[in-house]
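hey team, just a heads up i'm posting the complex here instead of the shared drive bc the drive is being weird again. everything in one block, sequence lines first with there labels, then the predicted structure for the whole assembly after. its two chains so it's a bit long, scroll down
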Amino acid sequence: MENKKNESFMQLPAFRIATLAILIAVTALFTYVIRIPVAPTRGYINFGDVAIFFTAIIFGPITALISGGIGTALADLLSGYAQWAPFTFLAHGLQGLGIGLVIKAGRRMSEKTKGGISARADQEQDRRGFPRRPGVVSLLLSFVVGTLIMGGIYFFTGGIMVGFAAAATEIPGNILQNVAGILIGTPLAMAVWKAYPPIRYYTW
Amino acid sequence: MISGTYVAGNSCIHKADPRFKFVLLLLWVVFLILPVRIYALAGYYAGLVLLISVGLSFRQVFQPLITIWPILLLVALLTPPFHQSGRVLYQFSGLFSFTIGGVREAIVLILRFSGITSAFFLFFRTTTIDDFILTLRWFGLPYSGALIITIAFRYIPSLLQLYRNIQDAHALRRPAPSGKRRFHPIKKFTHIFPTLVSVMIHSIKSIPTLSMALESRGFGRFNARTSYRALLPIKKVIHQGAYSTIVLFFLVLFLFI
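-- predicted structure starts here --
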């Protein structure tokens, strides 16, 4: 009975506004604050892509487009790199959309191939914690799509601003960023789904 | 963090209407990206130096350059070998050479990127985030879009505090490091993961509370929303439009230099 109530809750505009605002703030925090050094002297990766993968897996492509784009652009704005904010909005927003679309398509395909799975098996899967777990193939494909979109947009816009030779030096960093995104974002989504079951009623 | 990079001041650029500043910022960036001559680019950058000196201080001119110097260094080193036109200035053991054309291209890219960075720097140093969001609303951003961004800005410091609290709590549960601390990226990742899960769950748990707060303030009704703060009517700042047109005239003039 309680869950039925919650299911209609997600359709309210106030709920959607609140969800997007919180996810944007989380994405900005992950990009701006949470950074892990990858070498003893210099160089780090931020966790913006972790938040984007998380949002795309749990909340879907449109939410990932909005929260990924605005969240990372806000982080650029706050950290004094406002000149990159419009390109970041485009790159990470479309990256989130691409990842979300691939994962959504993967889920639909697996549902089709699953065919008449029994209700009990569905409940069992639900009890184990992550019924929306994306398949390995769709995850790998989403990683490729996300990297191509994000890296491509940064390479192209960077090429216009600083030349393609200097822009090419950013490519390994962007790939590493996406590797961290998929390696941490996917287990994070699964862990949150398992630890906080009401989240399944927060998606639309 | 909520105030962004704004620095309070009383200069004419601080007082200028954010709508005109925003349009000029976009136009300035477009002019910097256009394939103009090197003198025109130098003129656009000199104009920005002048505005930063007037609006902030001359020392602030170097502030945006400090943040981008690694990229500028890369541009200076990597651009000339890929542009081999013109007279050869220096040759590195027959591998590649620095030519007049390569150096010119590097200067163009450096001026362009420094100019774009300085333009954004000046705008956000002299415009508050509130005014920026109101400007976006004036240019057609829907009310709900502006509300989402405003709430996100409000939540970033709270989430930062939450993240630090959870990080401290998790750190207390680990044994104290003994001996010399070594750099270990994998360990860093394994330490940070439980913190991320906790932060994410706490953040998502606050969604129903926030949506109930929005509901109780009347969000979702169909009547027009009011705003606590608003920009001045455009009629009252029309003189600033004239000033902006003069600046625009100079930007176009530089195209023909």
